[in-house]
Write a structure and sequence with these properties.
5-stranded mixed beta sheet; 37% helix; alpha+beta; 2 domains
Length: 211
């Protein structure tokens, strides 16, 4: 895997290997400076983690460890497929297309956890993001040769979550097909360390593919 820095291996992978018990389980907690990477994404999670956000972009990697709620029935999975198919139709102003998207979206509301972007309010991050941490994140992404197009912070959660309960997320968009899930997990972990180094430990990182 090209582009991984030696300090990344030393700070994350080596402690992870040292924490392995003989039975293969981990003897390490959720360290604030370097979390154990989440399990590889399933195809369903990668496709539908961001259902409810615009075109429902594919998820590449995330540092959050909250389990994704897998669709529990064939009917739910079918609704997900129909919603995504409607959203991904070639874009043009089309009243019928808009009505179809709304219909498919509403059909999903009772079947799967939807997501919505909100601005970050009432959080210490606001004092250090624009002039301090934001340039550091950009510089890190460039140094790791990530083909990114957007990187900003939002609260992301279900539509009915209210400030300040939705989690704060560094939301990174990359060119479709340019970043593997494995390397994306490394990138996400490195980005999160920037926040931890400034005593902000409740911000996670989620990377998605731009269309």
């Amino acid at each position: 895997m090209s582009g991984i820095r030696q300090e990344t291996i030393n700070s994350c992978f080596v402690p992870l290997l040292e924490a392995l018990r003989p039975d293969g389980s981990l003897a390490i907690g959720d360290s604030p400076s370097c979390r154990v990477f989440p399990s590889p994404l399933s195809e369903l999670e990668a496709k539908f983690y961001f259902v409810g956000l615009g075109s429902a972009p594919p998820l590449v990697a995330r540092t959050s460890t909250t389990p994704w709620k897998v669709p529990t029935s064939p009917q739910t999975y079918q609704k997900l497929q129909e919603y995504r198919a409607a959203v991904n139709k070639p874009f043009h102003w089309d009243r019928d297309r808009d009505a179809e998207i709304i219909s498919k979206h509403d059909a999903l509301l009772d079947s799967i956890e939807m997501k919505k972007l909100r601005p970050v309010l009432n959080h210490p991050l606001n004092e250090v993001w624009g002039d301090n941490l934001c340039p550091k994140v950009w510089a890190l992404l460039n140094s790791m040769e990530v083909k990114w197009s957007t990187a900003d912070v939002f609260r992301i959660g279900p539509p009915d979550w209210k400030e300040p309960f939705a989690p704060v997320i560094l939301f990174i968009g990359v060119i479709s097909g340019s970043l593997s899930g494995d390397y994306g997990a490394v990138v996400a972990s490195e980005c999160r360390k920037i926040f931890v180094e400034h005593d902000i430990t409740d911000v996670d990182v989620e990377i998605y593919e731009r269309r």
